[in-house]
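In this supplementary section we document a worked example of the pipeline. Step one takes a protein sequence of length 587 as its only input; no multiple sequence alignment statistics are reported here. Step two produces a three-dimensional model, which step three serialises into structure tokens for compact storage. The input and output of this example are shown verbatim.
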Amino acid sequence: MLILGINAYHGDVSAVLLADGRLVGAVEEERFRRVKHWAGFPDLAVQSCLQMGGVEARDIDVFAVSRNPRAHLWRKALFALRNRPDPRMLTDRARNAAFVARMPARLASSVGLPEAHVRRRFRYVEHHPAHLASSFFVSSFDEAAVCAVDGFGDFVSTSAGVGRGTSLTVDRRVFFPHSLGVLYLALTQYLGFHGYGDEFKVMGLAPYGEPRFTGEIRRLVHVTDEGDVRLDLRYFRHWSEGATMTWDDGAPTIGPVFSSELETLLGPARRADEPVGDRHEAMAASLQAVYEECLFRVLRPLHARTRLPRLCLAGGCAMNSVANGKVREQTPFTDLYVQPAAGDNGTALGAALHAWHAVGGDRRFVMEHGYWGPAFDDTRIADAMAGRRGDVESRATLVALTGEDERCRWTAERIAEGLVVGWFQGRMEWGARALGNRSILADPRRADMRDIINTRIKFREKFRPFAPSVAVEALDEYFVGAVPDPFMIQVYPVRPEKRTVIPAVTHVDGSGRLQTVSRETNALYWRLIDAFRARTGVPVLLNTSFNENEPIVHTPAEALDCFLRTDMDVLVMGSHALWKRAASPEP
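The serialised model returned by step three reads:
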């Protein structure tokens, strides 16, 4: 059975293809459109998944979308009657619901099939069950507590329950307008970060400050003993005036969700062009501390109800890697699983898996790595270089690397010399993190490397950290209390004695958002790290996404363009390497 899963008319729209319960391909639309968090409909992602599976749209048995416009209708109506929100808010929500309701026709047009054909095979899956399915059904757990935490989807912000075998049971939900995701969004906007998905910037800023505003921020939110979240709605406007949202084709936007009462409580909000100061750092630290308190108050009652040691976490808030790294320390859960596309992109996967199990499919797939996107062979890479021959020949020297051993040894030498390397290999990553196939790599031993990459290549805020990719065998040698995480979605303390060894990937608070790399899940990247270890004694590389204020590069042409327009020193694509002449003496 072939199932196409779709996330549409939300942020980070995406598509996945399942064949008999096994993942074939998964990709976000932003990678093709070159606009971060692309909303609308994932036309190109759908086509890419069909191509990766070698199938036609008419071969698909089920089209599953991670929205259900009929979910919780009575609650929506009751909320509107009780609260009389701004009519513009109701119009905005109705418009988005209409997009979702018309999706069978939109999909049919996209793939060139009759609408009736698509409708017969179409399945709506509620947003939060899709989140939960995206985590539990690809974990290795036969039984686990499950929890999804985000802004909102289909009127729900938090859901929790149990996954057993091929079933999911939800026994607790938090409904609009109460939401931990909205709490974090409101303070992110208050701190002057207004882009969709900018919450990760606040998480990176938090370790620079002291949490001296926790008392004030605690006034915004309360979590009951049962784990239910309650906002003090005086400080928010998303429930009354509404927050303008755009989910059409293009970059998604969300208007301000905090009210003037928040500025009365905390002082004036930071302007986007205002420098980040001590007060903003302290506010970020306070928000992160309060968010963690609230999350653990949600998770502890879940454990008390289920008495299960394992937890599968999903939703946009599951991308908070700092909190994820503390789950085992701060709750009774002993095992945690978060798949790499835990946000709304991952609901395409969850919708497909939910549909598979709804028709009686068994569990056949465990997600142990994140390499589910398109790949490009050496011929396509050579064609891309030929298309920019003039630019390439005027600025760089081509180096042919025959064999994977030479590729890894040569690249490790360049990294050890202090050069910044673009590494483009194999299948593109699924999710927000570059995991060693579309990565910019550098020497973690150089204390100045973070500033070099931020100012010369990434052109982004200096407070944002870079991640360490560590050979899984060396995990305990470099990190405290950590467990293997191939998805770079948990933060742990770097051992004190190692912080001066790998300063470029040690954040200001002594932590690192680690990625463990094994021979089984990415043999080539593991061999590169091992070659660097053989050269330097350090089995760790600095890893950041291969991009420059854009989505992670998808094609060889995009990688080449990023390499040529930035101060990256070396580009290694497949068996081809380019070395900029200005970088250093050539071999």
